Each structure stands twice: as structure tokens, then as C-alpha cells.
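Below is how a single chain appears once it has passed through the pipeline. First comes the sequence as given, then the structure the pipeline wrote out for it. We keep one example in the README because the format questions we get most often are answered faster by looking than by reading.
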Amino acid sequence: MMLRRDYRRSIIFGTAAFAAVFLFMALAVFALLSFDAGASAAGIMDAYTLRILRFTLYQATLSTLLSITLGLPVALALARRKEFPGRIWIIRLMAVPMGLPVIVGAFGIITIWGRQGVLNSALVFAGVDEPFSIYGLSGILIAHVFFNLPLCVRLMLAGLERIPGEYWRMAASLGMGPVSVFRFIEWPAVSRLIPGIAGLVFMLCATSFTLVLLLGGGPAATTLEVAIYQALRFDFDPQRAIALSVLQIVLTAILLGLLAFLPSPEAEISSLGRSIRRFDGKSTAARLWDGAAIVFAVFLIGLPLVAIAVSGLQADLPRLLTAPVFLRAAATSLAIAMLSAILVVLCCMAIIGARQAVNSRRSVAWPLRLLSAVLGAGSSLVLLVPPVVLGSGWFLLLRVFGDVSFYAPVLVALINMLMALPLAMRVMEPAFTSHFLRTGRLSASLGLQGLSRLRFADLPVLWRPVLMALSFAMALSLGDLGAVALFGSESFVTLPWLVYSNMGSYRTNDAAGYAFLLGVVCLLLAAGGVSRQSQSARASI
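Resulting structure:
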């Protein structure tokens, strides 16, 4: 139930927020398509573009297969070994790459696998003449596995831990061996999750930008997004950038469509609620196999993180912290991150409020039902146009008005806001919906509306999910290089751009220090969001 004035206000604000998001994206796409349609259409079909498309799909397929194939044994081992030393910390370690800026993780990977890294130094010491090269397809695959294997493990582990305890008692009473346990119990629980996990990982790898920019190693290992950036930043070939942008939008739309048609996981199997106790995996061979899988994952994920910390602490942090370029970059990054986070929270609140207003009425006209559906899908619509494509469109749109770098801070903040919108909606909408169902009728009966309702009924309960979305949005914005890549310059420097420029000019020690500081800030913001989420969950219980 909602008062008439609140109902109208919510519909207007939600529609305005969606219209602003759609208009920002549509203008960027329109600028791309209208710049030179004939040249862009012809450029899509040339050999260079098709070669980049093939490599984009090829590396995404290999990265997905490696992440799933390597993550499955680790998830099975963690599900089986409840008593493994430090298991809870290993699971928490899996969450670190998901909150780490991509450029910081890439720096840690280069420190371990690079030409002067730990691995190659050991190979040279052992007498190997040709050390391993991190640049090219091999480096892209290693980096993608570093970021996506933990995601696969956590999602598959959650599915394995939902298997009812009765299954394990039945397996023990039937004397089922490890092959039978995997075939009849573990695989059915995991197999229904793998299509969705694989689709998500493939989408992330196909639209990867920062990792390929740093580790691609030239035209032979370039994806569509990096090629768009190179066409505008280095070659200033708008026709090429437009052709690649159109192809990137088409590819992203196809991937999102395929993800929508993937089979959803089956509902959780009913259980009697008994404690889960497993009786399998008691043999020495099974223990060694599980231990090796867990140790492999710890080293794969932990070594780059340790390298980031060690390299960062060895840098001259007091000098870096007081350097004018760092202070300017930090102020710029924090201002952009705060503006982006505030905008995304306000946009989410407007869209959620409009959907609640429509759903609060028993009989709703079909235009309003259509509006609610469009608003619900609007947060996912932003995934259709990647940040580099949005930046390219606005670059072409604003260059006729003068120096584009003048508009760069606001543009980067808006693009980062759009990229954080799907995550913020997932965080805020369930909490807002359940709160409205509990308090909507009471607030209406008391005449609470507008700011009064927000102050007395909503904020005392909903401040945790709001702050959580704010923290996540700030962390994403602080660590993002994709939106700022086109606009970074001496006059417009953010923390990720500072790390990237120092890596490019071979100031490795300074890059290590800046990467360490950026990683710590982003992880603290992400950890704060997670802790608020757990507090909110405990409070609701």
C-alpha cells in the first residue's frame, strides 16, 4: 500500500532515472553509428577485425575451460575436507581476487610470472635458457584463471554444501566408492551449476580489457575492447574504433542472450535438517589428491597477493604518499568514486521505488506493468555496452566541443556508475522489497510519505544495504581502468592510471607501492560491504 502522492512521485523518479541511464548509453551508441556508418560497416568484415574477434572468443573459451576444469577439483576437495587446516581462511582467500582491482592483480601476476619474476628467476638459476613469457595468450590465461577460478570454486562449493546429509548416509550404507559418489551425488549437484558459471566466466573473459591491455603482447593477442582503445588512443582511427565497437556490442548482446537462455539451477533438495557428515574420502590417496588440489589453489592465488604486499612494502611508501602526483590522483579517484557511488545508490532507490509502487497496487494497467518489467531489466541493460565502447562514443560526441579531458572526470564517474548499477541493484532490491512488504501498509496508515517516511521508517532499517552498495560501488570505481583509459593524461590522473603509467615507464618500485596502496583501499571497502551484508543477514534472522 502506498499513498497517492508517494505513488506518483516514485513512478516519476524511477522513470526519470531509467530514462537518464538509457539516454546516456543511447547517445554514446548514436555517436558511434552516426560518425561514418559506411566506413564502420565496411570495417567490420576486414581480416584484421575478424582475427581480433577469433582471438577474443578463443581466449575466452580457453580461460573458461581452465577455470572450470581447475576449479572443480578444488571445490570437491574443500567440500570433502571440512577439517583441512585453515579451511575457512582458504575460502576467504578465494574472495580476495573478486575485490581486488584488476590492474593490481595483474601487477602481482607479473611479479611472479614476468621476465624478472620469481618463476623466471628460478628457471634461470636452474639453467633454463628461455624463461617463460607472461606476455601473450599464456599470460592472459594465467590472469583470467587467477581472477575466475576463485569465483568458480565458491559457486560450486556452495552447491556441494547444499547436498542433504541423508545422501552421504545412504552412500555409506550402500558402500559406494569414490567414482560412484562423484557420479551419483557430487556431479548432479555441480553439473546444474556449471552452465551458468561457465557463461558468466566466458562473459567476463570476452569483455576483459585491463588484463589484455597489460599482458596481451601485441596485435597477435588483442581483444575487441583493447583494439577499440588502441584505435582511438594511439592510431586515432575513428572508423576502425566504430567498426570494433559495433562488433563488441553485437557480441555482448549475443552473450547476454545466451546467458538468459541457460538452464537455471534446480531448486534445493528437501532435507530432514540433520547435520552433514561425510564418510567418503578416507583413503590416503584421496587425502593426498585433495590436499594437492587445495595447496595448488592457495599457491596460484596466494603467491601474486604475497608478491603485491612484499613489493609494495619494499617501496618508499612515505615518499609516494606525499608525492604531488599521488595526492592529485588520490583526490581525483576518491571524488570520482564518491560521485559514482552516490549516483548509483540514488538511481537504484528511484528504480526500486517505482517497481514497488507498481507492485503495491492490485490492479495495474498494462503500461505500468510493462514499465516495471523494463525497470527490472534496466540494470542488466548497461552490461550491453562495455565501458570502453561508452567512452569511445562520448569521446567522439564531445571532441567537437573542444578538449575532451575537460569533461573526463564527470564522464568517468557516470560510466563507473553504470558499471556498478547491476551489483548495487542486487544488493539493495531484496532488502528494500522485504522492508516495503513489512512496513508499507503501516507507513501509509500513519501518513508517512516523502522525506518523513525516508527518515523515520526506511533509513533506520535500510542504511546497511545502502552503505554496502556504496562501498562496493566505490571499490569498483577506484580500481577501474577501463573508463579512464581513453581520457588519462598528465592533467587527469587516477590511481589505476598512475599504476599503469608507472608500469609502462618501467618505474617498477613506484608502481608496486601505488598498486599496494590501491589494493588495500579497495579491499577494505569491499570487506566493509561484506561485513555489513553479514550483519544485515544476522539482524534479519
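Residues 275 and 447 are 48 Å apart (CA to CA).

See the next section for the split statistics.
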